[in-house]
């Protein structure tokens, strides 16, 4: 049950350090909790590279980006970090949204300083039952966002969903922010984003097949395609596609930063992604995402925020899902869960989205 204002913690350290998609999934929950509990200050601790993702944050949210490898590489350094946060922000509660050794050490330091601590319950046993080779329990698990909400609920905080996008309901980022990339969208023009890569092979649609998707969509009149990715290998592939096909722009040539990319994302008519961080970024700005799933499965709880089941492309294979994160080698050896999806199936879905109801 939610507690009275006098019973609630006043300064809560919130922690999530991991992959971009995991941090992005915290934003609808953390922004909502901040707005539901304006008397409390929330201090969100994350990786330095991800701190700028928290655009238009509530007034009672402080975001701290830390380079752990350089600044706090050892366990005793984490104790020092907590002491610093306690001193600067008077921490009286710790919400661990990660549940790893680093966050456990910080949580333990919090308890030693008298802070109340609640940690995410990851549901590992249910995830193992969902991904094992035999006798899978094919039931949808609660989402990661629900697991985050539950952490705050155990403190007694109100956890009503009050997130309508980082720019607000129906609002978009300022086109001036990405004017160096492209002019503002023309009347009648459709913008499609494509993010064809992910961290693990079990999540990556074959690039040669995705190129066929790009080629066919680029031939549509009044369509512009934006390619999202990073790293030298991705930059090379996406750059070649941008040079080969008309009305295709690659954003992988350099790091543009979250403010620019999020502003551009907000103007897309749809986004084609893998089960990846880009799916969650597009969800934060209210863009309809066509997501492609291979070794992983939406049942694991990582579907994009407010995204439609009908926009998920996946094959009904008995071996799926074989892992939660797509990091296990394919037992078949051919990744048919991805290669078995035709480029035409993706193209048809994109066209049905951008052409529906005048879109």
CATH class group of the largest domain: Alpha Beta
Radius of gyration: 21 Å
CATH level 4 superfamily of the largest domain:
Glycogen Phosphorylase B
Order of helices and strands: EHEEHHEHEHHEHEHEHEHEEHH
Distance between the termini: 44 Å
Strand order of the largest sheet: 8-7-6-9-10-11
Structural class, please? alpha/beta
Number of domains: 2
What does this structure look like?
Helix content is 35%, strand content 14%. The longest helix is centred in the N-terminal third of the chain and has 17 residues, at 20-36. α3 crosses α4. It folds into two domains: 5-155, Glycogen Phosphorylase B (Rossmann fold); 176-358, Rossmann fold, CATH 3.40.50. The strands form two sheets. A six-stranded parallel beta sheet has the order 8-7-6-9-10-11, with helices on both faces. The chain has 359 residues and is α/β, with parallel strands linked by helices. It is built from twelve helices and eleven strands. It is globular, with a radius of gyration of 21 Å.
């Amino acid at each position: 049950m939610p507690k009275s204002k006098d019973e609630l913690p006043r300064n809560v350290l919130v922690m999530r350090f991991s992959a971009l998609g995991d941090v992005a999934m915290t934003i609808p929950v953390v922004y909502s909790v901040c707005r539901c509990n304006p008397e409390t200050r929330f201090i969100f601790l994350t990786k330095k590279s991800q701190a700028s993702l928290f655009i238009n944050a509530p007034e009672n949210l402080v975001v701290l980006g830390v380079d752990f490898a350089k600044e706090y590489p050892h366990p005793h350094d984490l104790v020092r970090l907590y002491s610093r946060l306690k001193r600067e922000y008077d921490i009286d509660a710790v919400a661990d949204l990660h549940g790893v050794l680093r966050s456990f050490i910080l949580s333990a330091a919090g308890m030693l300083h008298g802070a109340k601590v609640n940690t995410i319950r990851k549901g590992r046993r249910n995830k193992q039952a969902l991904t094992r080779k035999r006798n899978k329990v094919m039931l949808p698990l609660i989402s990661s966002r629900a697991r985050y909400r539950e952490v705050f609920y155990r403190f007694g905080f109100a956890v009503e969903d009050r997130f309508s996008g980082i720019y607000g309901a129906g609002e978009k980022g300022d086109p001036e922010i990405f004017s160096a990339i492209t002019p503002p969208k023309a009347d009648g023009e459709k913008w499609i984003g494509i993010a064809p890569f992910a961290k693990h092979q079990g999540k990556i649609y074959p690039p040669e097949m995705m190129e066929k998707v790009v080629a066919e969509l680029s031939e549509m009149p009044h369509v512009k395609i934006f390619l999202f990715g990073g790293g030298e290998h991705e930059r090379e592939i996406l750059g070649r596609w941008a040079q080969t096909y008309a009305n295709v722009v690659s954003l992988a040539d350099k790091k543009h930063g979250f403010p620019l990319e999020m502003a551009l994302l907000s103007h897309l008519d749809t986004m084609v992604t893998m089960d990846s961080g880009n799916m969650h970024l597009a969800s934060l700005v209210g863009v309809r995402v066509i997501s492609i799933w291979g070794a992983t499965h939406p049942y694991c709880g990582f579907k994009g925020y407010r995204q439609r089941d009908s926009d998920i492309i996946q094959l009904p294979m008995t071996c799926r899902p074989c892992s939660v994160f797509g990091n296990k080698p394919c037992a078949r050896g051919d990744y048919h869960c991805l290669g078995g999806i035709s480029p035409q199936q993706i193209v048809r879905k994109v066209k049905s989205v951008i052409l529906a109801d005048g879109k």
